User: What shape does this take?
Amino acid sequence: MSHLRKDPLVKRWVVVATKRRHRPRKVEECPFCPGNEGLTPPEVLRIPEKKDWQVRVVPNLFPILGDHGETTRSPFYRSRPGKGFHEIIIETPLHNRHIAELELNNLKLVLDTYQHRLREFNDLSWIRYTLIFKNYGRRAGASLKHSHSQVVAMPLLPKRVAEELTSAKAYYRRHRRCLFCQIIAEEKETEDRIIVSNRHYLAFVPYAARIPYEIWIMPIRHQAYFDRVSDDEKFAFAEIIQSCLKRLVKVLDDPPFNFFLHTGPNHLDAGDYYHYHLVIMPVTTILGGFELGSGFYVNQSLAEEDAQRLREAG
Ligand SMILES: [Zn+2]
Ligand SMILES: [Zn+2]
Assistant: This one.
C-alpha cells in the first residue's frame, strides 16, 4: 500500500504508491465496458440501479491512497499512512465515446455522481479533501481509453488548494469582498479572455494562464461548495463543460487533457470567500528545467488570443 513522505525543505507531501507500477500497459478487454463488470472490484454505486447502467463507480485497482497504509520509521523525517479512497467513475457504457460527445443528461449524471461522492466522503471526519479529476489520453496519464474520471479522498488538504484558500481568505479580510467574485467581475468587464458563458457559469482563459488554452469555469453566483449546487446549476455546468471541451477538440485536434474540480473543503468555513471551479488543462507542452527549477511556468501563448480562438470555435 502507499504512504506519504514530507519533504522538509518545502513542506510538500509526496505519495509513495509503489503498487501503481503494476498497472497494466495494455489490457485485452476493457474492464469498463458493460458485460465486463466482473473485471473491476465490486461497484460502489450504479446509476440507474438496474442492469443498463449509465454511470458506474468502482474502487481503483491500483489506488494512489487506500485502506491500510504504512509509515516509515525515522527520527527525523515525517511520514504518514497513505489512507484514503481512490475510485473510478465510469462516465458512460459506450467504449469509444469522448466526454465532449456524451448526451447532456449523461454528463449531468456524471456531475450528480461527483456530488454524491463528495457528500459521502465529507461525512468522514478524517477525510480532509476530496479531489475529482479526469485524465484523457495517454499523454495526460490515462491508462484506459473508456471515458472515466477519478476521485481521491485524502487525509490532508492538498498544498494547491490550501494556497488558494489562504490568498482568497486574506483578500476577503482586506477588501470585504470575495476574490473569485472580483475575478468574475474583472473578466466580464474586459471580456477579452471570456470563452463562453451561460445563466450560471463563466468560462475563460485565466489572466496568468500557465499553459496554452488553460480554461477556468466558475459559478457566477457566489458558492464555495460543489456538493450544495442545484440540479439546474448542474445542467448548466454540464453544458458549459461540454462546450469548452468541444472547442478544445476543434482548435487543438482532440488533445490529451486533464481537468480537476476544486471545491471548498467541508471542514473549513470557506463560504464567504471561495468558489468551487473546474480547471481544464490540455497537454500541449512538457515542463523543462527552467519550470522545474524555478516554479515559474513559461506560457508561449497569450491568454487573450487563446480565448479568442476558443470563442470563435463555438
Ligand atoms: Zn470500454
Ligand atoms: Zn464569490
Summary: The pocket of zinc ion (ligand 2) is lined by residues 178, 180-181, 222, 275 (CB under 6 Å). The mean pLDDT is 94.
